[in-house]
Amino acid sequence: MNNNYPYFNVLYFLLLMLSLPLSADSFSSSIVNTTRDITYAGSTQNNYPIQLLKHALSYDNKTHYRFIDFGKRLPKMREFNLLGKANGIDVVVGGATMVRERLALPIRFPIMQGLFGWRIALVHQDNKNIFKEIKKLKHFKKFSALQFHTWSDSETLLSNDIKLIKGTDVEGLYMMLDKKRADYFPRSVLEIDDDLAKHQHLAIEKEKNILIWYPKAVYFYVGKNQTALATSIRRGLELSLSDGSFKALFMKYYGDIISKLQAENRHVFKLNNPLLSPLTPLSRAELWLDLSSTLLHQDNEQISYLVD
Hints:
Blueprint lengths: L4 H24 L5 E7 L7 H10 L5 E7 L6 H6 L10 E4 L2 H6 L1 E3 L10 E7 L12 H4 L3 E5 L3 H8 L3 E5 L2 H9 L6 E4 L3 H7 L5 E3 L3 E4 L4 E5 L4 H17 L1 H18 L4 E4 L26 E4 L8
Parallel strand pairs: 1-2, 6-7, 10-12, 12-13
Antiparallel strand pairs: 3-11, 4-11, 5-8, 5-9, 5-10
């Protein structure tokens, strides 16, 4: 037995060496190879875009991501200028425009499903039924809307021949409506309830008969030099769409608002958005929330988009 002992040692060693490459390969697909810090614009991790960003990157099993808020509120253009820079920002959330898509690398997956493009009109309390009998877009265009002078929505509405009255102070727009300087103030379905809560002292209210819609995408943006990060985010978003977790997270944050709108019988006016790139994935119906399909009526003109 003692004579065989060295033989068994050598045999064991050879078998062990032969098994090592297979063991390494078997673990390489499941272990995290690198750790990377992701700095995002803003100062909170609890909102929907950042939770979605974390979820999308969780599908990358090669990298462990640590999320760091930039900690400062900056003008949006300043955020874009810091994308991909040393000690700058890795990810910015912003509305889709051709200008921004030239400055940065967009992940063309509308994370809000176009919800921000659905608008409800704030009106003076004396004019709460101003749109009750309006069913045609050409008649709707005769009414005047309030807008802040630098908002991109101003350009969108003007391109649809909507009459605008502009202001240089956002708070002043509510005062102008209170004084009947315009017929209505279109606000996102995500903003309007907060607007009313902050302006209870004014004679304004939510109009109950119409919805205004134009395609409005919100994207994740990264620096043009961050193609690998863009690929990881895009892959995670598409996988979450396929497995249903994207919809579940979206509805966790916005399901109550959507259910409330779906229960209302509103007439929908659809408008063009010339600010969108022709690369916007409008043909992918699964990426867009269409409230008009759950409402009784809609009126739209031919939708067209400007080519950059």
